[in-house]
């Protein structure tokens, strides 16, 4: 069947939810990773309901057409980029909050709602959903779940997997499954909900989610900014905070190149040459005492420390960290890496980054969610394509992270950009097992082909 | 191949780790559920190392022999009971703590270590592993993971899935896979670690686990005991505590029949007729203030309330709850059910239990982890076999729990005792999908056949 015939079938079933405008198709080729798929997809289906998703997938199965599920397109690994011959299935318009049950700390939502929009609504009930990716203002809950996008708060408040009780999933053949539960506990059968978290569109289409909520944390948020003469001192200090047993809500590290780029973007005074910064927030009823203890610890380690007890000022200070991605964009095309290591290995990982910088003659501005050991080294280059030297340097970084007991990706996912390293981390036997599990869900291989598992 | 020939092959490979003593074989037929497998297994392999597990599974695959993995045999759903023609693979002797890394809040353990033994060791480092099943003194960490055994602390400190970062697994064919990670975050590929949690020996044999630890909670534990005139009032009061936003560490409910049985066992004064009891513990730096707030709330709801700030007295008060299982054993054979409902539905679930009691002319002593909505209705009867009327009543309870948005099993697993209801909760499509996933791990169907997925 030709592409035109497939689009005709989609139009017959879904009418004006099928979009073939050149601008829309072009946009669906790329995400925020800088990577774009080759070629152009057939059409975008803007699903408004579960039945639209089912209709699309039935046609895809009948015609053997690949389907790329897409939310807001804010991914950083190319996982939702669609190319030649593919149907883009957008669930962005499925953005309702179906239910909020404060007494059970549960919400049921559609996948297209933005993380920030959900949390704005939940705040009215004194509640929040913990996953807090840096993209929360522009990324969807469904996308957060599909990639396992963690964010700044994971060490204290858990990862996405901990915050999802159930998902509704449409399989490749159009059948709807309700996975998981809405109870605190439940061990009936295999945990397919967790299998869907981070599955990057390869197993099914998430059309609903039952979320585990938290009550808003009482007390003031305190913010600590500590400047160190170099990145290794900052990394060691963050490891010392973790080892002290005080659990900050947020602990972000910016190296010298990152800090300089953000200061330039925001029109701030240039930081001292080589200086690296920790930005730490404590929350909860003991936040003031905890912030003072952390500040004392950091001063003892040679940091230049300031503490703010004002929430607005705290947000302004954290905004410096949140400006990292825009700051990099001013420098060129950015490949944002995402390795994660055990927290005690953070200083060693920064040593490895310095070694790779020297070996390849690159500057690799790096920020880290230092509280949980997740680093984002940024490779900046000109033009749309990642130069070979960058991939070689990234390869060195990945192998270093694995040697230190770490992982390829802490929260961005594998997508297309890391698929060639997947078997290095999983081992061949596990890689093959995972592919077979995908085949159980998607025997025709039409769900996001070429992503994650492609060899 | 005959059973004798299979045992001969096991002996040739594993020597005196192969046990065919009648007493051992008889013990391996049963767990703590009251259920025993029909017939007698071929042999027990007492694995001392991963290589023993691999050797056993290679022989099982080559000879097509079923394998039942077993830890301490404390399960409550018959999931580790072995019968005719089966090899019992005991990992109880693999009980080493391989590594404790306090700075990363990680421990690596073998599966046979007892939960309490692990936590005694971790306490030396100021750490603990949160899963806290009532059986923790006698149950293994591997068994806790294989069943998803939650316990008393789940509402505040999470379920087993939240506390396991990775597992080492031997597949049916003897290959060793290392699943998961040791970092806080990690989304490389599908989350097979979570798939193993609660898989009840059907996918592979867990031979090692990387556990996510917590630091010991500072501050005093406060214990609140509140007696109410009836179980519905107690259930409503527990729901009110949850809705208040104060998060106790423990909130246990005992109905009148449970309370009376335990008081009799422990030689205490008989409780007032019909009285039900909540036992609540708060912990952390604010535990005293929280306990006073909860006590005030419960008094306002008609409870007769006592508060203790003494840790030892608190343990004695909680021991009343922990004596439930022995108390039931004095009355006859016990089938302990395990439904879980959304917390707000707890009073309604107690209404359903009362309805079932009247309809079937039974007394169903029930305790509940009221803080998380997990109820354990106990059916007590004479003799080894569950009478049909009990299964009919249990069937009614399961359906009521599902109607209330709940689940068949909160923490005991499906095993053999709940397999006939599995498809009722999962739906036929999901049930079939789960069976196919099992087949990917275990194509010959030799791992714990007849458990969980048997039709």
TrEMBL record, chains A, B:
Q: Which cofactor does it need?
A: FAD
- Keyword set includes Calcium: no
In what residue span(s) does the FAD-binding PCMH-type domain sit? Answer: 37-216
Keywords attached to this Swiss-Prot or TrEMBL record, sorted alphabetically, are: FAD, Flavoprotein, Oxidoreductase
Check the record and name the InterPro entries matching this protein.
FAD-bd_oxidored_4_C (IPR004113), FAD-bd_PCMH (IPR016166), FAD-bd_PCMH-like_sf (IPR036318), FAD-bd_PCMH_sub2 (IPR016169), FAD-linked_Oxase-like_C (IPR016164), FAD-linked_OxidoTrans_Type4 (IPR051914), Oxid_FAD_bind_N (IPR006094), Vanillyl_alc_oxidase_C-sub2 (IPR016171)
Is Oxidoreductase a UniProt keyword of this protein?
yes
- GO MF term (any one): oxidoreductase activity
SUPFAM superfamilies from the entry? Answer: FAD-binding/transporter-associated domain-like, FAD-linked oxidases, C-terminal domain
Query: Which PROSITE patterns does UniProt cross-reference here?
Result: FAD_PCMH
Against PANTHER family, the record matches this protein to: GLYCOLATE OXIDASE SUBUNIT GLCD (PTHR42934:SF2)
The protein's name = FAD-binding protein
Organism of origin: Microbacterium ulmi
